[in-house]
UniProtKB/TrEMBL annotation:
Coiled coil: none annotated. It catalyses: 2 5-aminolevulinate = porphobilinogen + 2 H2O + H(+). Keywords: Heme biosynthesis, Lyase, Porphyrin biosynthesis. Gene3D superfamilies: Aldolase class I (3.20.20.70). This is Delta-aminolevulinic acid dehydratase. InterPro entries: ALAD (IPR001731), ALAD_AS (IPR030656), Aldolase_TIM (IPR013785). Catalyzes an early step in the biosynthesis of tetrapyrroles. Binds two molecules of 5-aminolevulinate per subunit, each at a distinct site, and catalyzes their condensation to form porphobilinogen.
């Protein structure tokens, strides 16, 4: 039907039902004087239920409408630590985010901690030539940036809760998240062995929480068993990137971490964007394997998955990672005048919380610390 026909059709219906439309017209306070037919009582009763504005006409009553409101304690801030000690390099595709050398980490984080930063998630970025190899040896190099940063932060900023991303892609020469067979496909058994060793190194160095993002089958169980065997499962939280979708929202992160695969893609181990059932299975699997926190990633395009995760993992914290592409998109939109940056940052995060997350990994964290104080 064309638009003009549609309008005609609508107006025909309207005129046919003109009495009804008059008695149900929503003019709060005017209903009584406007109608004097028998429909009036129905209309008033209808109006009683339809009066919602009082519930959100005041800033505080508006705030009360949210089941969950963003607090500083919900935020985890991603930090990129390089092996070049004095480095402080802005990441062009991630506005306001930097690669930090070890000497920069504490001076950078200290003021944020004073503003209420509670938690960081660490990513290592080996830059030295030859630092990457097929096994991702740099991931748990005792002199490497991640193990050094864990110990440094624990020592210098004892109030901070230190989460460490566990994956091989930042450290492998091929940029994949595991160890490969000669034909380039993923050797799951070896990858799980290696990833769980790396997780153990971080845990022993003092990480409060290890977060495997590699998506190899069975890694949660392997890490949990090693934590138990080592006698540290009571102090190391295991956060699983349970539902991590492949897609095009990780570009700026790969710039930042230098973790772009040198060939192929990650579709064999990251979930297909349409795979809601698969995500539910992955979440159940990771709970059964001993995960303590379930993460969904990316966040805003996967709100149904966050909601599923909260439903399946009812008694567990659910985290959502608002990834680099989401962050860069919001910045680009604000720069193009589509919306105000702060308003959109809050709106997108409110969506993530409403869907069921109680923890948000976000590059907006420093700004939220300021905005939440206002
Ligand atoms: N394992 C961590 C990531 O892949 C981060 C993704 C992003 O921020 O784009
Ligand atoms: Zn990876
Ligand atoms: Zn990753």
């Amino acid at each position: 039907m064309s638009f003009s026909n549609l309008v005609k059709d609508m107006s025909f219906k309207d005129s046919k039902n003109s009495d009804d439309s008059r008695s149900t017209v929503s003019r709060p306070g005017l209903a009584r004087s406007y109608t004097s037919t028998q429909a009036t009582s129905v209309s008033i009763a209808g109006d009683i239920k339809s009066q919602l504005h009082a519930g959100y006409s005041h800033p505080l009553s508006r705030a009360w409408q949210a089941e969950r409101q963003l607090t500083k304690a919900m935020l985890i801030y991603p930090i990129f630590v390089t092996d070049n000690p004095d480095e402080f390099t802005p990441i062009p595709s991630l506005p306001n985010q930097n690669r930090l050398g070890l000497n920069q980490v504490v001076p950078f984080l200290q003021p944020l901690v004073e503003q209420g930063l509670r938690s960081v998630i660490l990513f290592g970025v080996p830059l030295a030539p030859g630092a990457k190899d097929a096994l991702g040896t740099a991931a748990d190099d005792p002199e490497g940036p991640v193990l050094q940063a864990i110990q440094l932060i624990r020592r210098s900023l004892p109030q901070l809760y230190v989460v460490v991303d566990v994956c091989l892609c930042e450290y492998t020469s091929h940029g994949h998240c595991g160890i490969l067979y000669e034909d380039g496909s993923l050797n799951n058994a070896m990858s799980v062995e290696r990833v769980s060793d790396v997780a153990m190194a971080y845990a022993k160095a003092g990480a409060h929480c290890v977060a495997p993002s590699d998506m190899n089958d069975g890694r949660i169980r392997a890490i949990k068993l090693k934590l138990i065997e080592e006698g540290i499962s009571h102090r190391v939280n295991l956060m699983s990137y349970a539902a991590k979708f492949s897609g095009c929202l990780y570009g700026p992160f790969r710039d930042a971490a230098g973790s772009c695969p040198s060939f192929g893609d990650r579709k064999c181990y990251q979930l297909p964007p349409g795979g809601r059932g698969l995500a539910r299975r992955a979440i159940r699997r990771d709970i059964d394997e001993g995960a303590d926190i379930i993460m969904v990633k990316p966040a805003s395009s996967y709100l149904d998955i966050i909601s599923d995760a909260k439903d399946i993992a009812k008694d567990m914290p659910v985290a959502a990672y608002q990834v680099s592409g989401e962050y860069a998109m919001i910045h680009a939109g604000a720069k193009a005048g589509v919306f105000d940056l702060k308003t959109m940052a809050f709106e997108s995060t409110e969506g993530i919380l409403r869907a069921g997350a109680g923890i948000v990994v976000s590059y907006f964290t420093p700004q939220f610390l300021t905005w939440l104080d206002a």
